[in-house]
Amino acid sequence: MHEIEPPLDDDEASAAPLVTTGKRRRPELTPAQRALGLLVRREHSRKELTRKLTARGVEADDAEAAVARMTAEGWQDDARFAELLVRSRASNGYGPLRIRAELGIHGLDRDIVTAAMDAYDGDWTENARDLARRRFPGRLDDRAIQRKAADFLLRRGFSGDQVRAAVRLDDDD
């Protein structure tokens, strides 16, 4: 069914160029509307949102203004983005070193990164142990498999202490 759009005022009609899509003509989206469209799909950092807007043809100043507006209105929040990214990556089997590096790529403030990492309520060592057991089920008694598991966990971003604890034969060590 077709949506009925309210008629544009003369000022709005002259300010918004029309875009042709099939049979209908509709006004081109403003930078704020584009930013909001991206944010309703998933969280974005300020840096990422600005980059995506400029990649879609929005002028840099307009993109920064739109992102500032989204932040002021609570649609975009770097702290919320960081916490969600930490939980998401941890649940996908990544360790704290890799997650912290990814947060740095997003241009987040050091305090936000630290707060997000501290807010994570999981146990990194237990995450590493579970991942090693799932990836190498019942085979962690072999030294060669332990080395493979350790290499795998290190590549996933776990610290040396977490890796050593994860591949030990005796959980009480």
Q: Could you list some keywords that capture this structure?
A:
Arc Repressor Mutant, subunit A, mainly alpha, 2 strands, two-stranded antiparallel sheet, elongated, 10 helices, 173 residues, 3 domains, 62% helix
Question: SSE layout and pairings?
Answer:
Layout: H1 10-15, E1 18-21, E2 24-27, H2 31-41, H3 46-55, H4 60-72, H5 78-91, H6 96-105, H7 110-119, H8 124-135, H9 143-155, H10 160-167
Antiparallel strand pairs: 1-2
Order of helices and strands: HEEHHHHHHHHH
- Count of DSSP-assigned helices: 10
Query: CATH first level of the largest domain: which class?
Result: Mainly Alpha
CATH 2nd-level architecture of the largest domain: Orthogonal Bundle
Distance linking N and C termini: 65 Å
| CATH topology-level name of the largest domain | Arc Repressor Mutant, subunit A
- The low-confidence runs, each spanning 5 or more residues with pLDDT under 50, are 4-8
Largest beta-sheet characterization: 2 strands, antiparallel
Mean pLDDT: 86
Task: Choose one word for the global shape.
Answer: elongated
The H-level CATH homologous superfamily of the largest domain, spelled out, is Winged helix-like DNA-binding domain superfamily/Winged helix DNA-binding domain
Please give the order of strands in the largest beta sheet: 1-2
What structural class do helix, strand and pairing data support? mainly alpha
Q: Beta-sheet strand percentage?
A: under 5%
- Count of spatially separate domains: 3
In short:
By secondary structure, the chain is mainly alpha-helical. The chain is 62% helix and 5% strand. It has helices at residues 10-15, 31-41, 46-55, 60-72, 78-91, 96-105, 110-119, 124-135, 143-155, 160-167; strands at 18-21, 24-27.
